[in-house]
Prior knowledge:
Layout: H1 3-26, E1 46-51, H2 55-58, E2 63-68, E3 74-79, E4 82-85, E5 95-98, H3 118-124, H4 130-141, H5 153-164, H6 174-184, E6 186-187, H7 190-210, H8 213-235
Antiparallel strand pairs: 1-2, 1-5, 2-3, 3-4, 5-6
Helix pairs in contact: 4-5, 5-6
Amino acid sequence: MTPERVSVMELNLAKEVVNQRYAGSIEHEFWPIDDIDPKAAKFPCCIVWTPLPIVSWLAPFIGHVGLSREDATILDFSGSYLVNVDNFAFGPVARYLQLDREQCCFPRNLAGHKCKNRYKHIEYGTAITWDDAIHSSGRNFEHKSYNLFTCNCHSFVANCLNRLCYKGSMNWNMVNVAALILFKGKWVDGFSVLRSFLPFVVVLCFGIFMVGWPFLIGLFSFSFLLIGWFLLATYCFKSLLE
């Protein structure tokens, strides 16, 4: 082996070591974020949720979600070719869940991946910061048509989490995003709980009073069909979803 070839090999090896050290050194160098302040409507690095008009009156587990930047500015996909910035659609935040940036993968290069999906992650689209992932997803969804059943606000949040490879997963979708905020989300205050469930209780009582128990059967059938559609579309007919 010639000295020139040895030098090239040593140089490449040294570059790879530097890249790995550099990737590791920035892996956890995050900008500090402010504390969550519900009174000031500040929810940095959070999935946020609010009830939807009419839909949540019939199925209170369904609502509108968005994702906030490090400075607590909320971005949400609320209509065709429309990603709101700091203007959360359908009312103030009722529920929130702060996510851990240290469970995200921010690769500077192939060697900088901390997740096990490096090639799939690169193909999908990576991000170097939390805000970079949200802005990339926002630019993507500015060119999409909104559809409650196939491409909605949950799709936008799932897209962000896949860019972040949050918790090492590239399988975020409408269903597990909804389950995440439903089972782990925290209520802002008692009024938020009331605002989310009171319309449903009123509709339920009025329907039973006017129609009787068949209304209750119809209402739960509606919820069952809605849940069934999202489960089937997400896990059996993925080509139907954005």
